Amino acid sequence: MSTTAAVRVFLRRLPVDPLGTLLCAVGALALICLPFLVFKANRIVPGDPVDLAQVLAPAPLAAAALVLAAAGLCAVFAAGARLRLLAGLAGIVVIALVAAAGADVLTPAGNRVVRVAPGAGFWIALIAMALLATDAVTRMRPRPVVRVLALAVTVLVVLAVLAHGTFDQLSLMREYAAHADRFASELRRHLWLALGSLTAAVLVGLPVGVLCHRVPRLRSAVLSVLNLIQTIPAIALFSMLMAPLALLAAAVPLAARLGVRGIGAAPAAVALFLYALLPVVGNTVAGLRRVSPAAVEAARGMGMTAGQVLMSVELPLALPVILTGVRVALVQNIGLVTIAALIGGGGLGSFVFQGIGQTAIDLVLLGAIPIVALAFAAALLLDALIETLRRGAAP
Amino acid sequence: MALRAAALGVLVLFLLRPQWFAPLFTPLTQYGAPPIYDQGNLLELALAQLGTVLLAALASTVVGVGLGLFVTRAAGRAFLPLSRTLVDIGQTFPPVAVLAIAVPLVGFGEKPTLIALFAYGLLPIFENTIVGLRSCPPQVLEAARGMGMSPAQCLWSVELPLALPLILEGIRLSLVINVGTATIGSTVAARGLGEVIIAGLLSSNNAFILQGALLTGLMAILLYDALVGLERRVCRSVRID
């Protein structure tokens, strides 16, 4: 009884961070027990774990271990968010560099068949370090401008490092090199589909939302139809639109000349537009409903016409809520474009489904990682914009 | 109510006697292709999909509510800021990406779908549990403590009942999203109605695509309705005046 009490008192005095301790323990266990790198004879076979001690020189390996140990100590004991952020970032850099160095040594010069892939230990340790950094950032509560700047710097650094070729021998970058000619065009196609359908949904959804706000009977009808659309599985909606669009293209030559076809991007764009309508319309209605009647009354009293009230009072006040809807729609769209690959619509999903077909995880990741990064960046940018607007509205 | 009964009727009838609906779907087929899915039993596929969804939802409920309880207790408070950020980040993950990454790890079939649905369904439940538990008014907690309740009693008979409506809403959201998402599982050979849609896609048979979509949509809507009803009933019994 008294010993446990003493231990408890000791632990309370010692500034141990429980989250940091957990992350440190998980990361260390993963690095010790799980393979850090995996050597594969080709891109499809499961590989053999690599013993790093036999691959890298002792000095750099010891230096890396030292940095990781220091990062772990910071995670457990350091209280300052900045120090913890630094520790997390240093950990990420070291883990990535060790993997790159190992891949450089293990890949025979000129061999394009063998793959050196990051193993489970690499991924878990990397995620632990990323969580440490994320937690520090969360605790620092950066302003929207700072968040956007940090995103821009991160993107630039990652692009510069990738362009420099540090990771060229790692399996993921080998897969990129094999598909480099298609990657840029699929990425463009992905963005174009996501943003194009969103723009159309905003152009249509905003007026529809205003109309629904004004006409209550219309509101429930429109919103239930849009809710219904959301329950249709994405694969089904994409494929169902193929037939009518093929008929349209056959019947109207102009539509065919504009690129409307049963197969390809057109049904995907229409489906994405339909999915994006609900968040846009729903949030326009919700945002307008939240505008205080007093503000509208005051504007009318100043002699504004209904149109002026809408444009210069109601819509600006509802803007943060409307943009929240746009954020939901954009993130959802970026994810759903992936499925367009199944109906020949292209986009990064074509790498994902090809990879699934060939059981080549590197190819899957080549599609999946950029999709996740795009969705994350889009959410961060729009969140920053919304927060800035909210702060401006309520000083 | 009548609409709901009709929807349920159509769903059950379609699953039990699909051939009765053949005349409706024949105009959608070309070159004498079968109007009703003939490579498997629709009822079996629907039940398989429902089973996958429910199993995943059960797992994400246990884990989501458990984690939500943990990060709102004194012992887990250090994990709260990060877990909220992770919920935000997690929602930007497309389910297809989760599915695709799970396949190489656990192989084709039911498992990657279960993992993707579990991971994707975890977020709304976890988030709503946290919001629900934290929205409990401090005065109520104070009063409960003043009555001599232990922290466990406080949690069991005050905080959880008050948070229950939001937790149930989270479970409903994740179930409905997952019924639709489960169809994507058929691209990695999980059994479900997605099979029907993909078969239609591969043989360009619009009748297959439409019936797969119709059945999945009906299941999602009925599940949504049933859970809304359940929530109303539960909320009525725990309302505090």
Structure report:
The complex is a heterodimer of chains A (395) and B (241). Chain A is flat, with a radius of gyration of 26 Å. Chain A has a 3-stranded antiparallel sheet with strand order 2-1-3. Chain A is mostly helical and 395 residues long. Chain A has helices at residues 2-13, 18-33, 52-55, 58-77, 81-106, 120-140, 144-164, 171-178, 180-214, 216-231, 234-240, 242-251, 253-257, 265-290, 293-301, 306-340, 349-358, 361-393; strands spanning 37-40, 48-49, 115-118. Chain A contains 18 helices and 3 strands. Chain A has 2 domains: 13-150, no CATH class; 180-393, MetI-like fold (Orthogonal Bundle). With 241 residues, chain B is an all-alpha fold. Chain B has a single domain (40-238), classed as Orthogonal Bundle (MetI-like fold), CATH 1.10.3720. In chain B, 75% of the residues lie in helices and 0% in strands. The longest helix of chain B is centred in the C-terminal third of the chain and has 33 residues, at 206-238. Chain B has helices at 2-16, 22-25, 42-72, 80-90, 95-106, 110-134, 138-146, 151-182, 194-202, 206-238. The interface between A and B is large, with 47 and 48 residues.
Q: Topology of this structure?
A:
The complex is a heterodimer of chains A (about 400) and B (about 240).
Chain A lengths: L1 H12 L4 H16 L3 E4 L7 E2 L2 H4 L2 H20 L3 H26 L8 E4 L1 H21 L3 H21 L6 H8 L1 H35 L1 H16 L2 H7 L1 H10 L1 H5 L7 H26 L2 H9 L4 H35 L8 H10 L2 H33 L2
Antiparallel strand pairs in A: 1-2, 1-3
Helix pairs in contact in A: 2-4, 2-6, 4-5, 5-6, 7-18, 8-18, 9-10, 9-14, 9-16, 10-14, 11-14, 14-16, 15-16, 16-18, 17-18
Chain B lengths: L1 H15 L5 H4 L16 H31 L7 H11 L4 H12 L3 H25 L3 H9 L4 H32 L11 H9 L3 H33 L3
Helix pairs in contact in B: 1-10, 3-6, 3-8, 5-6, 6-8, 7-8, 8-10, 9-10
